[in-house]
Amino acid sequence: MEAAWIDSELERIHDLCAPDVVVHDATNPTPVTGPDGYTSYIARRTDTYPDLDLRIDEVTAVNGAVALYCSALAGPGDPKNEGDELTFTGIEVMQVEDDQNVEWFGTLVEDTSLEAFVEGFHGRVIRPGDPDYDDARAVWNGVIDRYPALIAKSAGVADVMDTVNFVREMDMLVSVRGGGHNVAGSAVCNGGLVIDLSEMNGIRVDLDAQTARAEGTAQWADLDWETQRYGLGTPGGVVSTTGIAGLTLGGGVGWLRCTYGMTIDNLVSVDLVTADGDFLTVSEYEHPDLFWGIRGGSGNFGVVTSFEYRLHPVDPEVMFVEALYPLDTAPKILPAWREFMKTAPNEISSQAVFWSIPAFPDFPEAIHGEPIVATHCGPVEKGRQALASLRELDEPLVDLSGPAPFTEVQQLYDPFFPEGE
Ligand SMILES: Cc1cc2nc3c(=O)[nH]c(=O)nc-3n(C[C@H](O)[C@H](O)[C@H](O)COP(=O)(O)OP(=O)(O)OC[C@H]3O[C@@H](n4cnc5c(N)ncnc54)[C@H](O)[C@@H]3O)c2cc1C
Question: Among 163, 247, 303, which is best to mutate for testing ligand 1, by the most ligand atoms less than 8 A from CB?
Fold first, then answer.
C-alpha cells in the first residue's frame, strides 16, 4: 500500500495522456471517453479560467494506478480573479492497465476556497503527503488502493454539513465512509473528497424507549456491547467489525433475522445531511419517502450521521450449533436442513455454508468440508433441544456446538475476515 514517489514517471504520464481515457467529473455525469479525455477535462477547467497554467508536481505509481499531484495558476486575465493570480491544487488519479489508461479521476480546487474550508472545519482534513494519509485512505479490503484528494474526518454534524456544501460548490467527486468494511471499497474515491465519519461513533441506549441511537461509524461489536449490558439487542450482521452504517443502509441480515427481522425492520429513524446540506430527522412519520429509500437503497440519499434502532430482549447466552459435515454428504444434508427450517421456530436463524475448513487451531488438521451453522436466540436448554437434529444430519467431521455468549456468537466469524487482507 505504501506510495513510492517516482519523479521520473512524469514523462510517462504525459505519454499516457494521449490514449483513450474516461474522465469522471461531478458536473459531467456522462464520462467523456476517447483520446481527448484528458484534454476535455482540462478544457472544462480552462472554460472557467482561460489562462490556467496546470502543472503536475508529483507522480506516484502503485498497482496500476498513477496518481498525480497538480497545482495550477490562473493568469491575471481570468474573469473570476480580478487581476490576482489564483492558485489551485488537486490530485488526479489514472488507472492504468497494460499501459492503457482506462479511467481518469480528478479535481482541482481553488486554494483560497480550500483554505477557508479547512479553517472552518472542527475535525481534521487529511491531504496527500500528510503522515497519516496512507492510513486514512486504507479500508478493510486491503486490495483497495485509492488516492483521495482530501479526507475530511468530521468531528460532528456541523462538519458534515460544511463538507457537503463544500464538495457541491467545488463540483468534487465525493464518497462517504462509515465502517470502511465494504468489499468494493466504495468508502474511498480517487481524486475526490472522502466524508469520513470515523471519529463519530457514540452510542446511547434509551431503556425507557427500548431504543439505541448510534453514530454513523460505530461497528456492530460496539452496539452489541452497549445493548447486551441490559440483555437487549437488535439484528446486525455476522461479522462484528462491519460498520452499522453501510450494513443498515443496505438492508442488514444476521443471526437474529428470523426472530426480529432485518436490520432495516428495526430502524426507527436516522439523522441525515442531504445533498443541499440540510439536516433532517427521517422516520416513518417525517420524510417517509426518504425513510423508505434509505432502508435498503444504500448510501446515495444523504449522509446519515446517526441511526436509531428498536431493541429487543436477547439472552446474554444462546445455543449455537456448528456441525461440520464432509462435502460428499451435501446431497443428504441440504434437503434435511431445508426440511428442518420449514418448521423451525422463529427463534432459530440458520444457514448452510459450503466452506473449506481454515487452518485454525479450533479445527482438526487437514479436514476440509462444509459446515452447517445454526444459532438459537433464547434460553440455552430450549435451544439445545430445538437444534439437536441439526447436529445429527450425518456423522460430523467436527462439532463445535454449545452454549455461547451472544456477543461471542456475533464475533465468531471475525477471525476468518481479518482487516487488510
Ligand atoms: C466480511 C464481510 C461480512 C459481511 N457480513 C454481512 C452480514 O452478515 N450481513 C449484512 O447485511 N451485510 C454483510 N456484509 C456487507 C456489509 O453490510 C456492507 O459491506 C456494508 O456496506 C459495510 O458497511 P460499512 O459502513 O462498514 O461500509 P463502508 O465501506 O464505510 O460504506 C459502504 C458504503 O455505504 C454508504 N455509507 C456508509 N456510511 C454511510 C453514512 N453514514 N451515510 C450514508 N452512506 C453511508 C456509502 O455509500 C459507502 O460507500 C459483509 C461484508 C463483509 C466484507
Answer: 247
Q: In the block, which residue shows the cell 462538519?
A: 159
Q: CA-CA distance, 306 to 223, in Å (whole number)?
A: 12
Kindly give the distance from the C-alpha atom of residue 242 to the centroid of ligand 1, in angstroms, as a whole number: 6
Contact 242 CB / ligand 1 (< 6 Å): yes
CA 342 and chain centroid, separation: 34
pTM of the shown model: 0.87
In tens, the pLDDT along 79-90 reads 565 556 677 787
Report the separation in Å between the CA atom of 277 and the middle of ligand 1, taken as the mean of its atom positions.
23
How many residues belong to the chain?
421
Q: Does ligand 1 lie within 6 Å of residue 241's CB atom?
A: no
Q: Where do the domains of the chain lie, and which CATH numbers do they carry?
A: 9-196 (3.30.43.10), 203-313 (3.30.465.10), 317-416 (3.40.462.20)
Residue 382 neighbours by CB under 8 Å, 6+ apart = 319, 347, 376
**Ligand 1 lined by 348 (C-beta under 6 Å):** no
State how far the Cα of 133 lies from the Cα of 126, in Å rounded to an integer. 6
Closest CA to 125 of 94, 157, 144, 148: 148
Q: What is the pLDDT of residues 138-177, one digit of tens each?
A: 999 999 988 898 999 999 999 999 999 999 998 888 999 9
Q: Is 417 in the pocket of ligand 1 (CB under 6 A)?
A: yes
